[in-house]
Amino acid sequence: MIRYHIFLSMATGFSLHSLHLTKLHSPNPTMHNPKPSPRVCHTHSPNRISEVISFEESKTGVKGILESGVTKVPPMFHVNLDPTDTSPTDSSLAFPIVDLRDIDTDSARRVEVVDRVQSACHEWGFFQVVNHGIDVEVLEEMLDGIRRFHEQDGEERKRFYCREKEKKVRYFSNGKLLRDMAAHWRDTIAFVANPHPPNAAEMPHVCRDIVTEYTKKVRGLGITIFELLSEALGLKSSYFKEMDCAEALYILGQYYPQCPEPELTMGITKHTDCDFMTILLQDQIGGLQVLHQNQWVDVPPVHGALVINIGDILQLMTNDRFISVYHRVLSKNIGPRISVATFFMNFTISECTSKLYGPIKELLSEENPPVYMDVTMKEILTNYYARGHDGNSYLRPLRL
Ligand code: OGA
Ligand code: NI
């Protein structure tokens, strides 16, 4: 059977003129993916392709679909749900919360906190922090700023719609839309926030000031968390900072519109984050779940809290002591849900250095030999961008 597979010209980013349809003979498209996730489609019918193209050309995202009066979830967003994936979770599993109060003044508290952080990173790969030092007004204004961007007139949003990854501010829906077509019910405004932030003129005026302020605050918190993570591994406090883990920040302002048929689609399907660490700010709607002991556990919205998760590269550097776990966001018939994900990693290939990242030597021994190879960020990113959002870990090809 002949199927169609879409290729993008990376040189021009994601312009529809660079989109080529190439005939491939099945099963080639799944050749590198021996165990495809049930919810992801790698080959696409011509109908689906034209649906995706007209969605992309609208440049107004999922929000634009609703604005046009559509009341059903269009087929390109339909996800093949595996029934075992939605089984009820054990409500006795308490998602870890870490209180950072007094960690700089009370050394006994700090020891306790480092201990909690170490077990959360080892067992869950996720935890929430409270009393982290960022004012709740800043968090609320950041969520509001992202909402203002997504809720302004479609013509205004369109001006920012872009697929060029080198651009410092861009609006898009589904970062990997044409690669995997597991279209998610979600729109995004992305900022390459540090170390070379966009200039004021590049920023949408509705959220310019707060994005600049939030970037500074979240980077400061990131440095604190990296210190706790270093201490949790028995390394000197500044270890991860000196490895430049807190240098590059990529901020995604996610907007999950209310969904008329939530059982047919997802806000974001199962994935791990390909970075050192992520700090997530979520509103009160809920829907984020993490895979823990083979069950999907809700990350309960806690007012004023931030969610921290370990990314793939920290799992690699800690040789699996800290884990980068699968998570996803369910669609809901209430909304919109707004979240802000800050990725500590450089997502701009042209800015990558030749610095090598691999399992930390101090953590290795004869009983604990390295299980990953050393890699550069450029190699990691190239692999990341080449792959679809296919439900497999980005770490798999890096295992020795
Ligand atoms: C992500 C992510 C979760 C959320 O952007 O990688 O997992 O709650 N986001 O938006
Ligand atoms: Ni994520």
Automatic annotation (TrEMBL):
InterPro entries listed in its UniProt record: DIOX_N (IPR026992), IPNS-like_FE2OG_OXY (IPR044861), IPNS-like_sf (IPR027443), Oxoglu/Fe-dep_dioxygenase_dom (IPR005123)
Domain Fe2OG dioxygenase: 247-347
The keyword Metal-binding is assigned to this record: yes
Pfam families: 2OG-FeII_Oxy, DIOX_N
GO MF terms held by the record: dioxygenase activity; metal ion binding
PROSITE patterns xref list: FE2OG_OXY
Keywords, in A-Z order: Iron, Metal-binding, Oxidoreductase
Required cofactor names: Fe cation
Domain of life: Eukaryota
Protein family per UniProt: Belongs to the iron/ascorbate-dependent oxidoreductase family.
PANTHER family in alphabetical order: 2-OXOGLUTARATE-DEPENDENT DIOXYGENASE, OXIDOREDUCTASE, 2OG-FE II OXYGENASE FAMILY PROTEIN
Name of the molecule in the record: Fe2OG dioxygenase domain-containing protein
Organism: Phaseolus vulgaris
